[in-house]
Amino acid sequence: MNKAINVALAYPDSDPLESKEEVNTLEVSMMQFPISILSMIFPIALYSLSEILIKNGKPLLNIEEDMPLRFLMATPSCLYSGILHFISFNNYRKEQYESQSGFYSLLYFILGTIFLLFSTTSLFSIFMLSIEEWNSKKVFSLVLLPSLVVYTSLLYTSCDLTQAGFRFTTTGTIDMLFDFLIFLCISISIAIIILQKGNDWEIYFSIISVVFALIRLFKQRYFPSMKYEGPTPKWRRIIPIIVLVIGIAIYGILGTLNFLLFHRHFFVNDQ
């Protein structure tokens, strides 16, 4: 699955259905250049406009109090993440039933469960981030929402999680450097949120990761590199595991925030 997506990304003019592995057309199309970029920068752009458009000392776009605006801001990133991860869950579920190996059947069950949780967390976030006021529009707009797209797009671009692969597929010094810097910046940003430092450094690292991700996507679109197809060293198998751990941290934070918003909206506010 991911291997075929990588082929479609590296060679956008080729037919992804020519791959020997099953490819979902919707998954491939959502990974294409414009959609991932728009989903990534939309919340940042909307937040910037809310800070710029001020009349009589009041923002014309009030993210904290305007529910339709919060819905508009949250939907692209969460929908992008939710749909792609749900398709991955469905594909892993099929591979679980088709696998002849008990080990790989268990592996696909675990991967499917992880991506199902990623998907439901993303889609549920659209609802919760819309109905409840945000405590920190900076963190939501500049860190969490962009990180969903940066993480998701890079996961499917750089990693092959199929039974035949399960490896880090990026080649070329420049691409590997960008992948490393992107995941590093995301990790630092999420770690700062977990540690609750609240000094805006998580925002700086998040913006840096977005900039690197945009450069990476531009390069992949116009100057694609071949994907790694040779014998797989251990470090190429370890990286996807680390990437999944980063994803668990990102969606774990988002899921926790969803729970807190849900509790505040339906229980605390009703008392």
TrEMBL record:
Keyword Iron attached: no
Coiled coil: none
UniProt entry tagged with the keyword Transmembrane: yes
Alphabetized UniProt keyword annotations: Membrane, Transmembrane, Transmembrane helix
Ranges that cross the membrane: 30-49, 69-87, 107-127, 139-156, 176-194, 201-218, 238-262
Family of the protein in this entry: Belongs to the UPF0328 family.
Official protein name in the record: DUF2463 domain-containing protein
The organism of origin for this protein: Encephalitozoon hellem
